[in-house]
Each structure stands twice: as C-alpha cells, then as structure tokens.
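Reading group handout, session on sequence-to-structure problems. Before we discuss, look at one worked example. The prompt was deliberately terse, the way you'd type it at a terminal:

> structure Fe-S cluster assembly sulfur transfer protein SufU

The input record follows.
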Amino acid sequence: MLDNLYRQVIMDHYRNKRNFEEIKGENIKKAHYKNPTCGDVMTLFVELEQDRVRRVTFLGEGCSISMASASMMTELIKNKPLTEITSLRKAFEQLIRYGNIPDEVDLGDSLSLQGVHQLKARHNCALMTWQALDKVLKDEKDYGGFYS
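And the output record:
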C-alpha cells in the first residue's frame, strides 16, 4: 500500500511539475546538467538572497524519477537557508544511495523516492537536480553540498 502511495506521489510530481519555469534577473544563478547515464537534461535556476535560496525553478526533460525529484527538490528548498539545504542534500543522498530515512531531517515528498536505492542505474536520475544545485552553489560559503 505504501509503495502505491509513493508511486502516486512520484507520478503527481512528474505530471504536475512544481516550479517548472525559467526565472531571470541579476540575482539568478543557473546550471545546466545532463545525466550521463540516460540523457535526461535540466537547467536549474536559483535566486539567492543573502544566505538563503529565495526561489528555485527548473526546466528539463527526462524520466519520471528525474523530473519528479526536481519538482520535489524545488518545493523542499525554496525559502530555506543554505545551511539547512546542506542537511537536506546530505539526507537525500543517503536516502537514494542506501535507503536510509533520516530522523532529524524532513525530506517531505522526496521520501517517496526511497525505493530508488534498490535501482543503482536510477541513482543519477534522482540525484541530478541536487548535483546541479551543487554546481550553482559551489562558491557559496554557507553551502557544503554532500562532499563537505
């Protein structure tokens, strides 16, 4: 039953992508990312305000996992400080790679992607948007990404 609910959440984000648009402005950073294993592509747009992601959107094409993950991530991190986003990033990586559900971090709808950890070929699909975020925020001192 839980698998069916998770499948429904993933398909809802895939069919009704949240924050699926380009944003422009002088405070907008962007990164283009192509998944080397399957060809999914996306561009992430991030508006920073001091140490916070004010807005985040994306455009792209890909499988249900990559597009749902992008939609979920944009909902999860908007209006959050970079330090909190670092914790979310690390928790999501653990969820996808090992199936670990974090106790201390609320991943929201992203928890529906837990089953992806069993499909190693799909890890990059789920992590693609977060890797694009790493590229966008690599110079921000308050964001550590997964590898800090």
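Points for discussion. First: The radius of gyration is 14 Å. Second: The chain has a mean pLDDT of 92.
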